Amino acid sequence: KPRNPETPKPRNPETPKPRNPETPKPRNPETPKTRKPENPKLMSDLRYPIGKYVPEANVTPAYVAACIETIGGLPAAMRAAVAGLDETQLETPYRPDGWTVRQVVHHVGDSHLNSVIRFKWTLTEATPTIKAYNEKDWAETDEVASTPLEVNLAFLEALHHKWVLLLKAMQPADWEKQLVHPESGKHLSLAYMLGLYAWHCKHHVAHITALRARRGW
After folding, report:
1. Nearest to residue 153, comparing CAs of 113, 201, 105?
2. For 184-209, what is each residue's pLDDT tens digit?
């Protein structure tokens, strides 16, 4: 009897079933699983959780006020970010080969202390060349590990209180005053610096909050 052309031809049971090209080939259990290389984009995200600093092209009074508010709110934001962390958690790096949580908090104090001095220089001198510092080495000096966390948090509160008073007292023309960075040679306005340090506040708080989110702390 002739076979209906629409009827599928029976498969020989000894013939191996062809593999669907879309089906992944099974891995030999004896073959070691290769480790994927570190994702550079992920590492970049861990280092810059809110992205890199982008200067504001149009510096308005509203922008200045928003930046000052962010700087003024940093001590409370940092205190909230580290609330309830134990000593082991404080010694956890926020990313592979990165600073520990304790070092991040300490660094923010170091950095913002330098920033206040840079603002004062620029407000009182004509286009001063500022003094750079090695932030990596500053985060590893001996007192960093032994300073109680509360001391660093209280230091941020006092420093930012004084800094905000200075920022709010500045006149519109003051934001156009410039300093010179000794390493790049760039002339940077105080409006640029204001935005940079407002970003810096959020940047380092996000290092800690992102770590806590990843670890479920």
Report:
1. 105
2. 999 999 999 999 999 999 999 999 99
**Residue 53: partners with Cβ closer than 8 Å, 6 or more residues away:** 195, 196, 199, 200, 203
| Cβ atoms within 10 Å, residue 202 | 18
- Model-level pTM? 0.79
Q: In the numeric block, which tokens belong to residue 156? A: 């941020």
**Cα(202)–Cα(160) distance, rounded to whole angstroms?**
14
What count of residues does the chain have?
217
Tokens 């935005």 correspond to 195
Question: Strand, coil or helix: what is 175?
Answer: helix
**Contact 200/209 with Cβ under 8 angstroms?**
no
pLDDT tens-place string over residues 40-60 = 555 568 999 999 999 999 999
Report the alpha-carbon distance of residue 128 to residue 50 in Å, rounded: 31
β-pair partners for 180: 129, 187
Residue with tokens 């949580």: 101
- Whole-Å CA distances, 38 to 96, 193, 213: 11, 34, 20
- Can you tell me which residue has the tokens 């699983």? 33
What six digits make up the tokens of 63?
């922008």
Which residue is it, tokens 């504001």? 56
Residue 163, token pair as written in the block: 């800094």
CB 49 within 8 Å of CB 203: yes
Closest CA to 66 of 173, 202, 186: 202
